[in-house]
Amino acid sequence: MENRKSGLIGHPLGHSISPVIHSYLGKRLGINTDYTLMDTEETDLDKRMVFLKENDVCGVNVTIPYKTDVIKYLSDRDEAVEKIGACNSIVIRPGSMTGYNTDHSGLKRALDDYGIDLKDKRVAILGAGGASKAVRYLCEKEHAREILQFNRTVREGVLPLKDAPVLAADGGFDVVFQSTSVGMYPKADDCIIDDPLFYGNCRKGFDLVYNPFETSFMKRLKEAGGEAHNGLRMLLYQGVEAFKLFNDVDDIDPSTEKDCYLNMLIAMNRVLVLCGMMGCGKSTTGRRLCNGADRIFIDTDDYIVKKTGMSINDIFATQGEAVFRQMEHEALSEIKSAVDDDKEHEYVISLGGGMCTENNIPIIRSMGATAYLRQDAVTLAKRLEGSDDRPLLKDNDNLKTIRALLEKREDLYMEAADEIVDY
Ligand code: NAP
Q: Do the beta carbons of residue 279 and residue 375 sit within 8 Å?
């Protein structure tokens, strides 16, 4: 099969999640991709661009510090590159190099996932580097009412960072974008603004940084009662768009994108815990994520069945739910120490539907990333029709029982989870 070469140019590159996106999508779509990190010193950029043309590379992503520098090598560019003045994806074909900006479209899709609408909103952008330009372009395109941009180094159209708390107090910000590199691993304790006055006047925040998963900026905003998200979905969607462009793929279905996202969570955290109601697809998804990968899948129900030699139905019937919940707690503690001891492997752990309790949540949250696979009651009831291995679905009205359980459990799933994924 043809080997489609692509990669990432920038300097310094360090650790990157982009290869995870491209290799996963390639594997899933049956395209033989070879995505490599091409760390390129500033003095070698010319040589690198020649190398790309001469070596059958089908496309590259571009990161710090070259998003503007690469524009001069392009034979063509999309409107966003023209307007933003930055290019993060280049499609290379014989005789042509076409530049795209998938940062702004990736950000738009991430905001859509989180239900953040910019229309008529008062928006603050912290930072004035390459990424901030894509943020500003999107805010303008989406008709934000007012856009105030702040930066450490003041330049035209940009206010001093120290003025942000006062301007936040004067009218509040509906949405704040943290687009500086402050707070990135390994300097995770650094935060772009310390003043609590600022956070108390911001409703929703989006940090373009995604490592650590919860940045200091996000923590402060949440502590002040706001809603905060990181930039990992933006990275996913800009990568999906770049993959489509590089490999001439028209469409990637949403469930492939979601699996790709869960793979990114595993790559970043080593351990991925899946929680949610019975029938939401935790075990199926977990098995799919581990299939063909050097990863270990653990289903807590299977673990308990194996340990006790009894089915879940039998445990409920002979010992009752309280004993089963204690068994789940013990199983979780045992699995946690096994996973902590084996740093060599990646793990996906599917939790029983009732395992997100106040007692278990601290253990769950200490294991790695947790995703809540959210599903509505009607779909769950349909999926569970006729199943005879669910002791909590004893009466005939599955939908009523599932609705009641979901109502009782949903806040706990949210508390346990770092991310909600709607399959
Ligand atoms: P950049 O062009 O190098 O700009 C860096 C920005 O951070 C500038 O505004 C700079 O301010 C500010 N800054 C750096 N250190 C600072 C400090 N100690 N105090 C205050 N401000 C500081 O980088 P970029 O391309 O805009 O990227 C910014 C961040 O966005 C990076 O962390 C990058 O990984 C992330 N990003 C994420 C995605 C995604 O898909 N999630 C996409 C693109 C970028 P000065 O002008 O004063 O130096």
A: yes
**Pocket of ligand 1 contains residue 179 by CB under 6 Å:** yes
Examine the domain organization and report whether 401 and 284 are in the same domain.
Answer: yes
CA–centroid distance, 112 to ligand 1, in Å, is 23
Residue 265 lies in a domain: no
Query: How many angstroms does the Cα of residue 209 sit away from the middle of ligand 1?
Result: 9
The CB of 23 under 6 Å from ligand 1? The reply is no
231 lines ligand 1 (CB under 6 A): yes
Q: pLDDT at position 333, please?
A: 98
67 is catalytic: yes
Largest CA distance in the chain: 74
In sequence order, which residues have a C-beta less than 8 Å from that of residue 163 and are 6 or more positions away? 150
Residues 418 and 398 in one domain: yes
Distance from C-alpha of 110 to C-alpha of 339, rounded to nearest angstrom: 31
Q: What is the DSSP letter of 165?
A: H
* Residue 152 Cβ < 6 Å to ligand 1: yes
Ligand 1 centre and the CA of 265: distance in Å?
A: 22
In whole angstroms, what is the distance from residue 389 CA to residue 50 CA? 61
Q: Which amino acid is at 188?
A: A
- How many whole angstroms separate alpha carbon 190 and alpha carbon 178? 13
Ligand 1 touching residue 150 (CB < 6 A)? no
Shared-domain flag, residues 45 and 151: no
CA distance 211 to 188: 8
Per-residue pLDDT band for 20 (boundaries 50, 70, 90) equals: very high
pTM more than 0.70: yes
380-418: pLDDT as tens digits:
999 888 777 777 776 667 889 999 999 999 999 999 999
Measured by CA distance, the residue closest to atom 48 of ligand 1 is 153
Q: What mean pLDDT, rounded, does the chain reach? A: 95
